[in-house]
Specification:
Layout: H1 4-7, H2 12-26, H3 34-39, H4 44-52, H5 57-68, H6 73-86
Helix pairs in contact: 2-4, 4-6, 5-6
């Protein structure tokens, strides 16, 4: 998703910043490509929190979809935290 320039990046803050920048530029139109970032073990938390910063129903839906797909205990906690950060109301039953 981020290309070869960051594929060897070992700094989660850098990757998180890139995710945030991508979403700020692309907005909700970038969400369909997000599942790949949320499946990667490496820096998947940065992808989840960047998505949460959109604070849109679409971002919430993507995070809920990933949570329902299953994850280990650590990533479930990450996803639940990101879901809480979306601060979207009314979409919890979706």
């Amino acid at each position: 998703m981020l290309g070869p320039a960051l594929s060897d990046q070992d700094n989660p803050e850098v990757e998180g910043t890139v995710y945030i920048a991508l979403l700020s530029l692309e907005g909700i139109s970038a969400i369909p490509s997000w599942p790949k970032a949320l499946r990667r073990r490496r820096h998947s938390a940065e992808a989840a929190f960047a998505l949460a910063e959109l604070r849109t129903p679409e971002a919430l839906a993507a995070l809920l979809t990933r949570l329902r797909a299953g994850a280990d205990e650590w990533f479930c906690e990450v996803l639940l935290s990101a879901i809480a950060l979306t601060a979207c109301r009314g979409a919890w039953t979706s």
